[in-house]
Predict the structure.
Amino acid sequence: MRDVYVAGIGITTFTRLEFALSEIASYASMMALKDAGITEVDQVYVANMGAPRVNHQTALASAVVDSLSLTPAGAAAIENGPASGGSAIKAGFQAVASGMDDVVLVVGVERMREVNGLEATDFIATLTHPIAEYIYGVTLPAHAAMFTRLYMDKYGVTERHLAMVGVKNQNAALNNEWAHLQQEISLEGILDSPEAMTNNPYVAEPLRFFDACPVSDGGAAIILVSEEKAKELGRPMIKISGVGQATDTHAVHEREEPTDLLAVRKAAADAFEMAGLTPDDVDVAELHDAFTILEIAESEEVGFFPKGEGHLALERGDTALGGKIPINVGGGLKGRGHPVGATGVAQAWEIVTQLRGDGGDRQVEDASVGFTCNFGGFGNNVVCLTFEKEA
Amino acid sequence: MSVDLEKILRPIPAEMAPYEPKYMLLASGEAAVVRAVDRDEIPDLLKHVEPLLHVERDYYDVVAARVYAELLSHYQYRFQDQYVLAVQVDGELAAIVNGRQVTPNLGLSLHTLALRRGLRIGAHAFAAKMEYHFDQLGHDEVLIVAESPIGFRRWMIEYKLEKRFETPHELGGVPSWALTRELFDAARSSLVVGRRPVPPEILEKAKEAILPPSDPPTPALDPLSATRSKYDPTATALMVERWAMEGGMQDA
Amino acid sequence: MAREIYAYKCRLCDTMHYPFRMVCKNCKQNDFFEFDTVPLPRDGKLLTFTRVYNLPPQYEVPTLGLGIVELENGMRMLGQLDIDEPKAGMAVKGSVEVVREETYDDFYGMVFRSA
């Protein structure tokens, strides 16, 4: 298997974007191509969840590859729920590692604000089990809420811990010009003041408004290349050293221990094993905080902290910029926004930015090993990646 | 003979209890003041409403046009019993709400215009005017409609309004919905916030000047993109328009 | 006819599944439809729950109670809750009712009330 490097990255602002879907994908791709200094690729993978349903467009990859004048390169779209981005990176990785392709463009894109918030909620809910979950009106916030209540009862996580994650990530987004939310929040305003419960109403008890990521449009792209090509291009040598993917039961209630996220555990373990790393080696991590509870739970399952102690690490400041293992320093999904198909690629974008030392005000000092966890479904399809900087 | 036409055209105002200002902490931790706007402050509001006429999203254009007309006619004495409240954060204009008294028992909600988003300021402002109708003006019922889905969801989900479809609303003649005193009391504990009295220094700061909103809603890059994208899924027109705006193309 | 929600019992190893799956999770038997249907019990205890405020547009109610219930045979299922103040661990009883209405279809599922 050949080594695979990230030679270029690009992103659009995450917000409401009033451009066509393929145009958003193209903007991010053009930035990545320019960053890598290339105009031709062998293969394009487009990560996207909602084009057929939300944007009434199918065969998106054909549209994107032609819009970028990259024809006759191969092109395919990958739909894997919120883990589409990570899955597309994995496909790109396999293409380069196998020796089949030398240069692969991976672009994630979503335009969810084309429909209103309720329809977007329903569209995401279609990833749940059709008969055992969806027909009951289950939404992703509902799943996260039921998971949170179990976590609270079992491990002593409180609404304050959740709010702390929300404040940490939303305020971190202020250091990220591409992030959706550019509004500072405070614990007093969303938790402690007499107005807090009105400022921060329930979305699904016990989860509140500021516990959930916003609905965003946006695109992110990376260029994956072989070692030979990476040296030729002369960009910083950032290697994808580990790839892990795992699945779990479709219906959440079928899991033996409902507070475990076994797919996260296995995907992370596989990625670390492939890279020959341990969780302690990681300098900066991007976890999939679609809901605040997920950052806490994932920080345990990937091995940064013992099970049930993620919230204690949060209290100690371990997960903040300057802490032991800074998590979501670019705002995470909570602050950067969550265009579902783009998220997995945006996580890689943030890690590569960090490993290149281009993080500006959010730069983690001497970051040389990065980690991403892209969480699909409600934990039933997860992709974890490790990134390493080579001198 | 001289008939004073102004005397005929200008409505005779009814007695209305003044709005007692209040303040609340926002999610950001900043204090927001809700206070009644005097008639001579209306021009200060108008200049911040005008730019929103060109924001073609979330019905900001429609709402801003109507609010502009309401405020202007209030200023020119052509509106019966209108009140205007402003929400200010550190002097900065964050929202405008207005409404009017139809009869001593019936109120009518006009508009809620948020100039800063993401902190539920619009929700606080809407709750403040409902509180004014029921607690200070003593109305039994307030007639409401919404132009935007955001507003509609706010009162459908949060206040659970009743239908008054037999009564056309003064805003566009569409069927009315009503918030009754009973429904308001049910929603009060979770939706109505605010502390009184407002500390003098905070109130002074608000009254001193209505400062421009720091981050008002702005038009999309292409001012017609929302409309155009419905008819032009290829976005070609969008791109041509944008190039023209950027000065890269003539006669586009 | 009383409506039931069915569990699926593998004919080879007796493992029960809900919801339906094509291949047994335990013995991986790969003969088509080698399952017997068994009605799910109605009694159980509430494991976790939520009240959802942002619902898909098909719902005309402002909020909806949902929960995961551990049934008396040890299986779990998700259902709607018609309970004012749910508590984890409380005894509940299910009944099969319409849980979602689309334009031309009604979908039946379990609605739990306190037992």
Remarks:
- Chain B has two domains: 14-217, 220-252.
- Residues 91 and 207 of chain B are 8 Å apart (CA to CA).
